[in-house]
Structures are given as structure tokens and as C-alpha cells.
Amino acid sequence: MQVQETNDYSIASKHSMVHRGYFIDDFMQYLSPKLKRRSPLINIGYYVRAVVVNEGIKLFLTLEPQVECQIVSLGAGFDTTFFRLVQKHENIKYFEIDFSDVVKRKISYIKNNENVISKLISPQETSFGLTSKHYSIISQDMTKIEELQSVLTGIGFDVGKPTLFFSECAITYMPEESSTKIIHWASGLENVMFMVYEQINPNDGFGRVMINHFSTIESPLKSVEKYRTKEDQIYRYKSCGFTDSYSVGAFEIYNKILSQEEHKRVLNLEPFDEWEEWHLTSSHYTLSAATKGLFEKASKFFSSFSTSRDFVQYDSTLGWDALIELGLKLYAHSALPIWNSDAVLIIGGFGISNDSKHKRMEQMGLLNLKTMKVEKITPPSVDGITWDCLYHTCSLLSDSKNETSFLLYGGRTSPVNQVNKSGFVITIKKDGEDVRISGRKVEHNESYPEGRRRHCALNVNGGVFLCGGLSVEKGVLLKVLDDSWLFTHDEQWVKLDSKMSPRFSHSVTGHCNQIFITGGLSQEFEPLNDLWSFDISANVWTYYDLNILPRYSHTSHYINDWIVLIGGVNYLSENQPGICIINLKDKIYKEFKLPESKETSPVMLHNHCSILLSDLNSVYVIGGGGNCFSFGTSFNEYLILFHCNKILNR
Known about the structure:
alpha+beta; Rossmann fold; Neuraminidase; nine-stranded mixed beta sheet; five-stranded mixed beta sheet; 34% strand; S-adenosyl-L-methionine; tRNA methyltransferase activity
């Protein structure tokens, strides 16, 4: 795929998003006549992009609403912005620039549809494109600034008029020196705003997947390695001559300007359960703007957004050891130490099967912690059990050297199909080299929890504590739960009093009768940064007022009055969770940043499982990763070891 072809993918994705009801655009169907349905993750990702881009252009138009102004769209592709704007803003002159092939095809679509061409006054074709009173589209090499300026001037561009230069994922494909020259040239205007929507954060796990994708399709991003962060973006535009410069993460804008009603409407348009990748995608894009003259008042808009720097800073960077390739590539699974921690049983998840297909995992994995080898096991067919499920829990009931029993509960096969709602008691025995697995359904009493996924469960004195999660009701795709339950020794469900707010994808750990719950996504789909404890014997809930980073899809462990949080996700563009340690006695905490990921084996600490080793000093991370937007699915390939004693003993 060449750079020009990124336009075709982008416009098809926008069309899919509009067709599904996310965003209103009456002209999209005419410039993208063939509908290609995209996944819910692609649709909602492009919706964030549409909302943020639309808000940026609206800002420009409202700063000086009575003044005749110009918009120059650099690498416009098949964008429909002008045709949506002209109905409300008759005092703008709009210029689009792109490759010759893209321009020719767009002009053809415009000319051949009366609903589009009728919006243009006195359209005329030229050797380099099409011009009209308010709209012009030209093919021009943007690396040749003098030629570009000459052509623009010849079709009515006026350097004296207030102007917005805009690039939506376009100049990032140009050589960095060339795109910087355009920025320099634009800064020479007296009243000007330069606005860019493009990628940042190339060096974490998700960023590596993103960068590798664009390189693979022969459309490498050529500025992001030099201008990696929002601060780098701000520096870039100021160093090019602009008075003020700003950069805000895409989701930070989206989340603030969207009403809660609209947020919920969008999330219920179609079945959706890829929260981590949605937030990670949005945290790797930024809206950057630079201003001079009349548009310096834009500072009020950009300063209204909280920045990542409002949160706690990292104490330092904590590394890891990538030990071995497990031969298991999967995420959204469960992992349970069995046989007195001689082995780890891995159930379910989405991954790469024996036939190299991406699918829900039907086979179990048995990791021998002595040999560090994985044996794949085909589980028995048990009436009612869905083994190939995602976002379920497996919680220990009893354990010995040769036999372990646990409760398999919940999960899903699709966002609308909840499974294992009754719960099943599973027993795994070893007899020499033989492994036998059996299971039976839990018989319900009158009171029992509703089916769910992305909940938490924990062994407590031979029983299981279960809380929160995400459920489905008739007419409601996303029901966030706040209930707490105890599965007792005699296999009865007892509902507990719960003061914890509704949440899902949170984490639970514990010690003796104390249970500790951290983070999650709230009922408003906001990442949480709280810590609750629950004394199950005294039935007492306690809230810890801390200011840790918001996170969900993380794991946690109790180690000698410390809680260790492993990984997770939020939507902050420069404060993604790494490792956090919380001292329960002193109520202090430290955040540790994860190291940069390698290009060849990106690591993402979400949708993973972690196992606390018996020495209480180290944690194994097993699996993890996800479907990284349009960049492809990525799995953590290695068994990862964190040495917790290095930070707990500082």
C-alpha cells in the first residue's frame, strides 16, 4: 500500500462509521460509493477522529466568525469537510491539495453527483485540478513550497486573510524536513493557525505495533520518531515561528466535549468489547495547533483540557526480563497456579491456534514451572461449559500436590453472548504423566449472580469472592455491575453488601480476610484510580484516598503489606500505567514507567495474566496484547518476569 492508498482505507472506514450511525455526514456516500463494513473498533476509532477534527475546525471558525477566512487542507484525500461546512459558513474559501491520482478521482466523484457539484459556484476544471468561488482542489507536490504558493495564489489564496492550515494524518508521510518547511512557510502569515491530527508515542508496545504497520504497508511515518510526544509537538511549531503552540491527546478532547448521553449512545450502537485498544489508539493520536495574530485566543480552548502532567509523575523506569517464548500467543485468558504451584493452567482467551488461525482458544495450556515448557491439553466436553471463552475467571477452591479444584465462572464468546453463567467446579488431577480434567455445574439456590464478563474473582479461605463486571440485558448492551458475592464451601452463592461503585476490568487481590480492589472502568466508562478494601469477616468496606494513575485491565498482587499493580490501560497520552506499588500501612505509593518496547517483539501489559511466585519476590506475566485497531493483532510472545523485590525494598 502506497501513501495514496491510505486515503482509500481511511475514507472507507469513515463511510462505515457514518453508515453505522456514529457521525452525520450527508456527503460521505457520494465520495465513497462502495460501502465496506468495518469492525466496531474501527468505527468508534474513526468516530473519535471525526469528533476531534470537527472540533478543531469549529474552533477556528468561531474565533473570528465575521471575518472572511481561508482553510488549506494539506493531503485532503476524499475528505467531505468543505461540503458540510459551506451550508453554514459562506464566508470561507477552501483549498485542498493532494496527489494527482487522488485529485482526479475526487473531481470525478464531485462532477458525477448532483448533490455534490451543486454546492460549488462556477466550477471550472484546470490543468491542475478544479476551482470554484469557495472551493478549489489541486494536485501539487507539497515539498515544492514556492510552486505551491504560486499555484495557490493563482486560484485566489490571499496571504493577508486569516488562514487555517490543516493536516489530518497527511504531512506525517512527508520527509520530516519537507513538512517542517511547510510549517515554516505557514508561520509567515500574519493571522494563521496550523492544526495537525497525527500519531505520537511510537516507542511503547502499542506504538511499536503502529509504527511497524505503517512501515509494512510502505507508508512509513516520517516525523513521529523526531516529535514523539506532545511536548515535542509544541516545540516543533514554536521553533518554526509560531507564537503559541498546543497539543492535546485525541481522547482527552473527545471525552470532554462529548455529553454523557452521546457517549452512551455511541457505545450502544453495536456490540463492542475492545476498550483497551480503543483507548490506546486514541492515546497515540494528538491534535496539535499553533497560532499567530488573531488566533492566539485559541489558548482558552486548549488550556481547558487537563493534561497528563496533572497526574503523579513516574518514580523511575522499571525493566523486565523476557525469559522464553511460551509457544502460546493469546490474551483475555485466565491463568491459575495448580498442584502446589508446580504448574500454571491456562484456559480460554483469543490467540493463535495450532493451525495458525486467530480464534478463541479451545485447548488449555499447562505450563510446567520446573521445565518451563507448555503442554497443550484438549479439555473434555462437559455439558454447559464453554472452554473457549474470553474475560472469564478461574478461582482456586482446593489444592494439593496432585489435584486442584477451581471455580470457572463467566466470560463471553461475543459481546452479546455470555457463557458459563452458572459457574462450574473444575478438577484437574495428575497421575504420573496422565492429566485428567472433570467438571460439574454449580446448582443454584434462590440467590445467585447474573452472568458477566470482565469481572473479578478471588479465593478467600476456600471460597470465592466475586465482584463487578459487565453484563448484557435486553435492550442494554453494556450493563456495568457493582454487586459482590461469596461462593461458599457448601457451594452456595451469598450476596454481600457492596459499597464499591460499578466497574469492570478492575483487579482484585487479598490476604487472609482482606480483599483489595483497584481501578477498572466506571459506569461512565472512565478509568478509575481508586483502592477499596473489604474485610469479609467483619463486612467492612474501606476507601483509600490515593492519586495513583487511572487504570483498568491490569493485574494485582499482595506482598507483605504492599499492593503491586501490573500494567493496565487508560486514555492519557503520556501517562500510561506501568507498575505501581502501594504501601497499605503508610498509604504511600510509587509509579514506575515501563521501558521502551523492542521493534521486533512489542510488549503490551493489558489483557494479560500474572502469577506471584512462591518466593513472593517475583511475578510472571503470561500472555496479553490485543487487536490494535487497523494495525493488526499483537500478542506478547514471551514469558515476562518482574523482580518486585527491587522496588519494594528501596
